Amino acid sequence: MARRRRNELSIDTSTRFVEIHGHQRAYRIAGRGPALLLLHGIGDSSASWVPLMRPLAEHFTVIAPDLLGHGESAKPRADYSVAAYANGMRDLLDVLGIDKATVVGHSLGGGVAAQLAYQHPTRVERLALVASGGVAKEVSPFLRLASTPLADVFLPLLRLPPARLAAMAGIEVLRRSGTDIGRDAEELGRVLDALPDVATRGAFSRTLRSVVDWRGQVVTMLDRSYLTEAMPVLLVWGAHDAVIPVGHGHIAHAAMPGSELVVFDEAGHFPHHHDPDRFIDLLGAFIAGTDPVRFDRNRWRRLLREGRPRPSASAGDEGLAPRHLEVVPDPAPATAV
């Protein structure tokens, strides 16, 4: 174990930069082996993947970009739709000379990963969607509120020290409250910490409004999920997700033929942070136990022509029972030696 930790510490995960279409794109890359593309959620950055990148880089070429408008990437007045993000990931892979990858996406990044598989099916070998956006309407009331014009009034106040302190104090209260949203207080604090920056706030608002309005999520992968028929798909959710409820994982599992659903029963919206070792082992087993999909144009055409009935997202919002639902208990902590 000590040797493994030394190896991980020696892996360089520093930020690199490349210009694509005139805009600076930040990314991290490490390791050798099959390509693994890690996509973060809204308001987050590639930095959130660093603790997982190091052990994964012992077996894979791991790429973790800052999506446009996030982290150290440029924040222009631009298209922040899920489709545009998917094209951006295709272009980044091209620049890096990577033809195909297993794509792992968290939250917004999950929606981008699914869209990448739809728009550019020859580039995605497997999908791992972690508390993914883009399934059903239900979403955190905070995100609904942040997508309304009211946010244009209140978010700029975070530049003022009293408002900033009040927001951080509120997050601390949530952390101590024992509620589901409190489980993710640290991650929520990281997102709020970046919002006082004007460019970051603008990109955040444009991104959010492309996928959420006051009624909830406005985009869905369900109507095209049947196209993953031959693709290995892993779905990972936290049972206490207060941002995108675990019911969305059940709906996606029912809609994606052959997918595997694993629920971390003590986790919130960030199961890969709640138990990173378990997540790394799960992802490694998923990749080792599945063959990368090979794009078959004839099969793709057949699926498009036949189509499939779209599962009911509204039923899922009310608690649709999943197919083959399995909640996997978090393992007991190991005894220290």
Walkthrough of the structure:
The protein contains 14 helices and eleven strands. By secondary structure, it is an alpha/beta fold. The protein has a single domain, classed as Alpha/Beta hydrolase fold, catalytic domain (Rossmann fold, 3-Layer(aba) Sandwich). A nine-stranded mixed β-sheet has the order 1-2-4-3-5-6-9-10-11, with helices on both faces. A two-stranded antiparallel ribbon has the order 7-8. Helix 4 links the parallel strand 5 and strand 6. The longest helix has 17 residues. It is globular. The C terminus is likely disordered.
How are the secondary structure elements laid out?
Layout: H1 2-9, E1 16-20, E2 23-30, E3 35-39, H2 50-56, E4 61-65, H3 82-95, E5 101-106, H4 108-119, E6 124-130, H5 141-146, H6 150-154, H7 161-177, H8 185-194, H9 198-211, E7 212-213, E8 216-217, E9 233-238, H10 247-255, E10 260-264, H11 271-274, H12 276-288, H13 297-306, H14 313-317, E11 327-328
Parallel strand pairs: 3-4, 3-5, 5-6, 6-9, 9-10, 10-11
Antiparallel strand pairs: 1-2, 2-4, 7-8
Helix pairs in contact: 2-12, 3-4, 7-8
Number of strands: 11
Distance between the termini: 13 Å
Number of domains: 1
CATH superfamily: Alpha/Beta hydrolase fold, catalytic domain
What is the H/E string?
HEEEHEHEHEHHHHHEEEHEHHHHE
| Gyration radius from CA atoms, angstroms | 19 Å
CATH A-level architecture: 3-Layer(aba) Sandwich
Helical residue percent band = 25-40%
Major sheet: arrangement of strands: 1-2-4-3-5-6-9-10-11
By secondary-structure content and strand pairing, the structural class works out as alpha/beta
Q: In percent terms, what proportion of residues is strand?
A: 15-25%
Q: Average pLDDT across residues?
A: 83
CATH class: Alpha Beta
Bulk shape = globular
Unreliable residue runs: 312-337
Largest sheet: 9 strands, mixed
Continuous helix count = 14
Output the CATH topology: Rossmann fold
